Amino acid sequence: MKLWVLRHGEAVSHARSDAERALTSVGERQALASAARLHDQPLDAILASPYVRAQQTAALVHGVLHGAPAVQTVPWLTPESDPLEVAGHLQALGLENVLLVSHQPLVGNLLSLLVHGNLREPEPMQTASLAELHGDWPLAGLMSLHAVNHP
Predict the structure, then answer these.
(1) What InterPro entries is this protein classified in (predicted)?
(2) For the chain, what is the HEC assignment?
(3) pTM exceeding the 0.85 threshold for the entire prediction
(4) Which of 12, 86, 99, 124 has a CA between 20 and 30 Å from the CA of residue 111?
């Protein structure tokens, strides 16, 4: 399995709620820069948080990837989601090539769980950072971190 974990691009600092924060123009450019790293990757699914900034990031990525599957919105990719729950959902999907578009602290904690088997070493992920993991299963401690790219 290849799993890509993308943190959304830079977002405005204030909105009516955290879920409604939109990308800035810098965030849009960051998302497109990260999308370029995925141009030749076969994706079985693009899964995104329902928050506006993640939806916008996922839409920008989808827009530049020819033949990519439609973005699916899932409620288990919000900032405070449980990494164990996310790993369970990924395992149940049984797909080979998946892109997740989400937020900190979830993305850093998920990477720590999948690579180190615990939540003590969250990966520092800047806005629009893209991590690539490889492994047979998306289980705690069974994936390897191939690369983390920052825009």
Answers:
(1) His_Pase_superF_clade-1, His_PPase_superfam, SixA
(2) CEEEEEECCCECCCCCCHHHCCECHHHHHHHHHHHHCCCCCCCCEEEECCCHHHHHHHHHHHHHCCCCCCEEECHHHCCCCCHHHHHHHHHHHCCCEEEEEECCCHHHHHHHHHHHCCCCCCCCCCCCCEEEEECCCCCCCCCEEEEEECC
(3) yes
(4) 12
Express each pLDDT in 48-65 by its tens digit: 999 999 999 999 999 999
> Which tens digit of pLDDT belongs to each residue from 62-88?
999 988 999 999 999 999 999 999 999
CB atoms within 10 A of CB 21: 22
The residues, any chain, with a CB within 8 Å of residue 20's CB and separated by 6 or more, are: 51, 52
**Pair 9, 127: CB distance under 8 Å:** yes
As for how many domains the chain has, the answer is 1
CA–CA gap between residue 33 and residue 150 (Å, rounded):
9
Q: Please state the length of the chain.
A: 151
Residue 144, domain extent:
2-149
